Amino acid sequence: MRSNGASGRPAPAEFVEFEIWGARGSRSLSPPLSSIANYTSCYSVRAGADLFVLDGGRGLGVLSRSLSVEGRFRGVERVHLLLSHSHMDHWEGLKDAEWFWSNGNGLELRVLGAEEAIETVRRGYGHPAYVPLEVLAARTLRRLNFSTLEVGETRRIHGWRVQTFALNHYSGGGKNKNRLDTLGYRLRSPQGFVVAYLCDHEPSPATAQDEERMLEGAHLALIDAHFADRAQHAYGHGSQEHAASLARRHPETLVLAAHHGPTHDDRAIRRAHARHGKGLPNYAVAEEGMRLTFNPRTRRLGAPRAISR
Ligand SMILES: [Zn+2]
Ligand SMILES: [Zn+2]
Q1: 210 belongs to a structural domain
Q2: Which ligand lies nearest the alpha carbon of 183?
């Protein structure tokens, strides 16, 4: 973001930085109570001038603030926000994003997602509920646009590759069960870093093949681990047990349990991790502040680094 007025060279394009800003599912914990995750879904992948953001939950407020003040983001010119689906916990952070409140910051923002999600976001911020994002963007961003994605699509954006898959997600149950058009993403950076994003998602036999396709050869995967055990799967969400099973099948992929259930405290999350992650060095809990760097020369991710905020 250019508004900080700082000068200097852009971040080196060869390294790719992945970071976690919001790993809590469904609602934020306010006041913050957890040392693992307090904010709703938001993860970023940065290389050169491009910042890809996986979901715009309340973690986006924290990310956008860092973007405006931290030197390592200086070269970022374009933000690509990939929405998984229309539930509010995946886009509520947009109104808190610093880039909508800082005049002439020069950023370009593109919001991508299924038609249902894009329409919901635009309606959600429309008058009289709020101020349309286009109005917020008029004096702040260089450009704002929305783009609709279909299931099974491959989109190339400035040398990055975005592939979409259908996830299994719904709210309620029985007569009140409501399906949502939910996209899983497989994102590949120009340097070859591959991340698979599967939130929100309840695994089923019908989705097993797509899960394999998304994780095959990925360096990193974020898996809906709302619950601890498979027997608890409900409301379109998965478990640490299932996430750990994916880690077992993909030893080269670092699998992170994400979208932690809103009523699960840190001890419960860590206990489930200890139980299901035994003997799995490539299985960890997604924690806010966790940052990973991909080195394209070694084609490896560095060890997770937790940064306390
Ligand atoms: Zn969610
Ligand atoms: Zn949802």
Answers
A1: yes
A2: 2
Which tens digit of pLDDT belongs to each residue from 240-297? 999 999 999 999 999 999 999 999 999 999 999 999 999 999 999 999 999 999 999 9
Q: Provide the terminal-to-terminal Cα distance of the chain, rounded to the nearest Å.
A: 21
Q: Report yes or no on 293 lying in a domain.
A: no
Q: Is 294 helix (H, G, I), strand (E, B) or coil?
A: strand
128: number of CA atoms within 13 Å, CB side?
A: 0
Q: For residue 25, report the phi and psi dihedrals to the nearest 5 degrees.
A: -95, 145
CA of 16 to the centre of ligand 2 (A): 28
Domain range for 41: 15-288
CATH of the domain at 133: 3.60.15.10
Residue 78 lies in a domain: yes
Quote the pLDDT of residue 288: 98
67-80 pLDDT, tens digit each:
999 999 999 999 99
Q: At what angle do helices 266-276 and 240-249 cross, to 10 degrees?
A: 40
Domain count along the chain: 1
Cα(1) to ligand 2 centroid in Å equals 30
Rounded Cα distance between 61 and 137, Å, is 16
For ligand 2, an ion, list residues with CB under 5 A. 87, 200
Report if residue 300 sits inside a domain. Answer: no
